[in-house]
Amino acid sequence: MVAQLELKEVSKIYRVGDNVITALDRVSLSIAKGDFISVVGHSGSGKTTLVSIVGGILRPSSGQILFEGEDICALGDVDLSGYRNERIGFMFQFASLLPMLTARENVMLAALFAQERSREEQQRADHLLDLVGIGERVEAYPGELSGGQQRRVAIARALMNNPGLILADEPTGDLDEETEAEIMKLLGRINREQEVTMILITHNAALARTADRMLRMKNGRLVGVTERE
Q1: According to the model, what pLDDT value does residue 114 have?
Q2: What is the distance between the alpha carbons of residues 72 and 82, in angstroms, rounded to a whole number?
Q3: With the C-alpha atoms ordered 90, 131, 163, 157, is the resulting torsion angle positive or negative?
Q4: pLDDT tens for residues 203-215?
Q5: 88-91: strand order across its sheet
Q6: φ and ψ at 140, to 5 degrees?
Q7: What distance in Å separates the CA atoms of residue 66 and residue 57, rounded to the nearest whole number?
Q8: Nearby residues of 139 by Cβ (< 8 Å), 6 or more positions away
Q9: How confident is the model at residue 6 (pLDDT cuts 50, 70, 90)?
Q10: Residue 223 lies in domain
Q11: Alpha carbon 133 to chain centroid distance?
């Protein structure tokens, strides 16, 4: 299959005084459109550095990253910001909703950052909230929503700009086991039905095994790949 995302010998090195810290060490990886990939490893293994570089939050020290054929390492700051806002959807450990905004307004934030302000954007936000199962709570504020409902708003927000890739860094870390299972089921359904590529970062091996491929990282290196049976 043609790769949507390719990493070629990507490294990230920090220099602190006389110390050299290698956060990512010559990682090469190919991901096709619609793949669901999980990345596991102990704290400090390079997982978050990997998704931060793929998402354009950090620049690599060396190597090449191709997204849909475009080398994002060659982008200037303005174009890299556009890449983050328009082509990547982000999900983090906490929903991080703004408490003074409604569910709809929190979802629309992504469009506002992309300078889209239209009736169609509001309709898309409502559609996405319906898609994630809380269409009846569009006017609710975060304080009026359960943890699982807040996470569904965060998923809708990640989808707002119709990204080709969602990066989910420990997206269920603060949820109870039952709600965690519901959110993972929802992410899997969105991956299949919307054909959105997903990269999931998790410490939870059971969650990681629900992905199409599980990548294992250690000391900044990719040390193993397990295909789902």
Answers
A1: 54
A2: 11
A3: negative
A4: 888 888 889 999 9
A5: 88-91, 165-169, 197-201, 36-40, 213-218, 221-227
A6: -75, 145
A7: 15
A8: 102, 103, 104
A9: very high
A10: 3-227
A11: 20
Taking the C-alpha atoms of residue 13 and residue 69, their distance in angstroms, rounded to an integer, is: 25
CA distances from 188 to 137, 182, 191, 197 (A): 22, 10, 5, 10
Contacts of 31 (CB under 8 A, 6+ apart): 3, 4, 5, 6, 37, 197, 199
Residue recorded with tokens 């939870």: 204
Task: Count structural domains, the chain.
Answer: 1
Residues 31-75 pLDDT 10s: 999 999 999 988 889 998 999 999 999 999 999 999 999 999 999
CB 213 within 8 A of CB 225: yes
Per the structure block, which two tokens stand in for 101? 């905004």
Instruction: Tell me 135's DSSP state.
Output: G
Spatial separation of the C-alpha atoms in residues 138 and 28, rounded to whole Å: 41
Can you give the CATH number for the domain in which 33 is found? 3.40.50.300
Whole-angstrom Cα distance, residue 29 to residue 51?
12
